[in-house]
Amino acid sequence: MILSNQTYMQLAFVTFLFLALLTLPLRDIVTVGFFDISDLFVSFMIAVFIGYMINELMPANTAISIGLFMFIVVSVVTGVVLLNIFVIIPFRSRSENSSATSIQQLEGKEGTVSVSITADGVGEVIVYTGFTKINKMAKIYESGNESIAFIEQGTNILVMDVKDSILYVIPYTNTIQATNKQTPTWNTKHKK
Questions:
Q1: Pairing verdict, β 150-151 and 156-163
Q2: Model's pTM, two decimal places?
Q3: What confidence score (pLDDT) does residue 145 get?
Q4: Which of 17, 70, 71, 186 is most open to solvent, judged by the fewest CB atoms within 10 Å of its CB?
Q5: Residue 5 CB coordination number (10 Å)
Q6: What are the contacts of 63-72 at 24+ separation with CB within 8 A?
Q7: How far is the C-alpha of 40 from the C-alpha of 23, rounded, in Å?
Q8: Closest Cα to residue 72, out of 20, 1, 3?
Q9: Average confidence (pLDDT) per 10 residues, the chain, 192 residues
Q10: Whole-number Å distance between alpha carbons of 100 and 96
């Protein structure tokens, strides 16, 4: 019987481990909300390990029955589903909500060009959001009214649109910052 042969159990364990690792990229494709193809192979791997340990602890003449093994498989699958529902999915959703700013939220933010942007090329900008700065690829925003051919490094920009993870920007001068840089004319002292 296969379940009583330790070599077959070890081979089954290694096979399910290999299949679980091989199907990791398919997790988002072959899934049922809270249970995916990789979880299935991990469940079989755990069940085979438990079956192997039961066979090791039992006397030499007795073997694990198919009914007991199926009960172990169903129990492990149920345990993995419950673990996904009550632990993994809630923590994953919290981490996505508390993570850094979404790229769509960068629209309307100010930043600085870190790699010059040409009319038909892609550059890089640094956008400041709160206490963090985000480096993203950027292109020149075409508004139809005026055509900008080049934005040089160090220029302040405004993010006008976000498409396909690329920021579309225009040169921008904040009026408050511009007034702070002007020299006052009412209190000038001339040296002779």
A1: unpaired
A2: 0.47
A3: 66
A4: 186
A5: 13
A6: 63/1, 63/3, 63/4, 64/3, 64/4, 65/3, 66/3, 69/3, 72/47
A7: 10
A8: 3
A9: 75 89 78 78 90 78 76 91 84 55 79 89 86 85 78 90 89 69 58 52
A10: 8
pLDDT of residue 188: 58
Q: How far is it, in rounded angstroms, from Cα 126 to Cα 116? A: 12
Q: What is the dihedral of CA 78, 80, 81, 87, to 10 degrees?
A: 130
Query: Which of 144, 122, 146, 126 shows the shortest CA–CA distance to 136?
Result: 126
Q: What is the DSSP string of the chain?
A: -GGG-HHHHHHHHHHHHHHHHHTGGGTTTSB-SS-BHHHHHHHHHHHHHHHHHHHHHS-TT----HHHHHHHHHHHHHHHHHHIIIIIHHHHHHHHHHSSPPGGGGTT-EEEEEE-EETTS-EEEEEEETTEEEEEEEEE---SSS---EE-TT-EEEEEEEETTEEEEEE---HHHHHHHSPPSTT-----
And the tokens for 108?
């309307």
- Please, which residues bridge with residue 132 across strands? 129
Task: For residue 87, give both structure tokens.
Answer: 């632990």
- Round to whole Å and give the CA distance between 127 and 114: 10
Residue 113 neighbours by CB distance under 10 Å: 20
